[in-house]
């Protein structure tokens, strides 16, 4: 690896990255990435969040050299993927979404094979060290088919690490993985990051991105619609909707609620929109007491990913219009 002074500011940088999948027998033409600009800072855990079909894997696969871009440019660890292909490839490890492990090799053999593919000379291989880091040292000689699902996932990560890349990309690492395994994987990812590896992961789970990532980019229909430090993004998405139904019908919104600017729904309910972090519920209930209204039902609306995309895209259009 290069000396400290030469470390790039961004682990990954994409400029105007574009991908159109050509029409084939079965599918029409698909504009999967629409000239996206994205800078992934060095050293953190970066989340690429978006629903299925958003273009996450396309982005990752272009970086990995598995998909050819249609336009734009990308650099990994400062190396342009077209002009400095070899260095760019050497700087990234990719863990694909599907578990594809040959069941008849042991973890030790699989890692040695992979190191061979990457041209790592035998003397420089760190096979046992990598197995150790991923908690697989005691399974180094077990047949892969005898490994649990969690171990297989970790083995995939180990495989992506054989050439000691400074950037590790995980494509939907926990899709279809149970809660316990998910937690385990998260802590492993955190450890790798603490040891200095820049992590990029894609996910369609907001909680996953929220839990793990320092910074999140949201990708939707091939466009980056938000890219912010996690806390900033969450603050923007912090809207909650609360509907309170009262025992007593009323004609106008009682003045006691003015501060909360609710909306009247039907004869005896009010809908409040607020920032969850403001937690105004106790004050709203106090205002109800003031107004001599008895709450009989309270319901909240969780913001789901689809709402978030709507919210963010609406924001973008409003900004464009103004
Ligand atoms: P994600 O990983 O976010 O689910 P993908 O990058 O896999 O999204 O896909 C983005 C879009 O491109 C989708 O509409 C998908 O159907 C399309 N797509 C992906 N791969 C191909 C391909 N090889 N040929 C044609 N269309 C594709
Ligand atoms: Mg995908």
What does this protein look like?
With 322 residues, this protein is α/β, with parallel strands linked by helices. The chain has a domain of 64 residues: Alpha-Beta Plaits (2-Layer Sandwich). A hairpin with an 8-residue loop joins strand 1 and strand 2. Helix 3 runs parallel beside helix 5. The longest helix is centred in the last third of the chain and has 17 residues. The radius of gyration is 25 Å and the shape is elongated. The relative contact order is 0.13. It binds adenosine-5'-diphosphate and magnesium ion. Magnesium ion (MG) binds next to helix 1.
As for the CATH topology of the domain at 239-302, it is: Alpha-Beta Plaits
- The total of helices stands at 10
DSSP strand tally: 14
Unreliable stretches:
316-322
Oligomeric state of the chains present here: single chain
Based on Cα principal axes, name the global outline.
elongated
Helix and strand run: EEEHEEHEHHHEHEHEEHEEEHEH
Main sheet attributes: strand count, strand direction, barrel closure: 6 strands, mixed
What binds here, in terms of ligands, is: adenosine-5'-diphosphate, magnesium ion
Instruction: Tell me the name of the CATH class of the domain at 239-302.
Output: Alpha Beta
Helix content: 25-40%
Strand order of the largest sheet: 6-7-8-3-9-10
What is the end-to-end distance? Answer: 47 Å
Averaging pLDDT over every residue, what do you get?
A: 89
- The fraction of residues in strands falls at 25-35%
């Amino acid at each position: 690896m290069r000396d400290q002074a030469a470390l790039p500011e961004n682990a990954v940088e994409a400029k105007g990255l574009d991908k159109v999948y050509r029409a084939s027998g079965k599918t029409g033409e698909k504009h999967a990435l629409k000239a996206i600009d994205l800078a992934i800072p060095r050293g953190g855990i970066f989340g690429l969040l978006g629903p299925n079909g958003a273009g996450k894997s396309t982005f990752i696969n272009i970086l990995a050299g598995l998909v050819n871009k249609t336009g734009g440019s990308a650099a990994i660890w400062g190396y342009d993927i077209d002009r400095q292909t070899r260095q760019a490839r050497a700087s990234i490890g990719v863990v694909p979404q599907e578990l594809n492990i040959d069941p008849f090799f042991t973890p030790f053999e699989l890692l040695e094979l992979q190191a061979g593919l990457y041209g790592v000379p035998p003397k420089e291989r760190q096979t046992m060290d990598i197995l150790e880091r991923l908690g697989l040292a005691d399974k180094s000689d077990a047949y892969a088919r005898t490994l649990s699902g969690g171990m297989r996932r970790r083995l995939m990560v180990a495989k992506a690490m054989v050439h000691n890349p400074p950037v590790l990309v995980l494509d939907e690492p926990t899709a279809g993985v149970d809660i316990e395994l998910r937690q385990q994987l998260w802590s492993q990812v955190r450890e790798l990051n603490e040891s200095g590896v820049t992590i990029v992961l894609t996910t369609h789970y907001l909680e996953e991105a929220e839990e793990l990532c320092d910074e999140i980019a949201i990708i939707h229909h091939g466009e980056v619609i938000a890219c912010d430090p996690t806390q900033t993004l969450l603050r923007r998405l912090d809207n909650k909707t609360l509907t309170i139904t009262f025992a007593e019908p009323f004609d106008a919104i009682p003045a006691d609620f003015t501060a909360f600017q609710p909306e009247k729904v039907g004869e005896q309910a009010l809908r409040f929109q607020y920032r969850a972090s403001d937690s105004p519920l106790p004050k709203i209930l106090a205002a109800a007491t003031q107004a001599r209204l008895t709450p009989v039902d309270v319901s909240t609306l969780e913001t789901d990913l689809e709402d978030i995309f709507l919210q963010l895209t609406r924001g973008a259009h409003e900004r464009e219009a103004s």
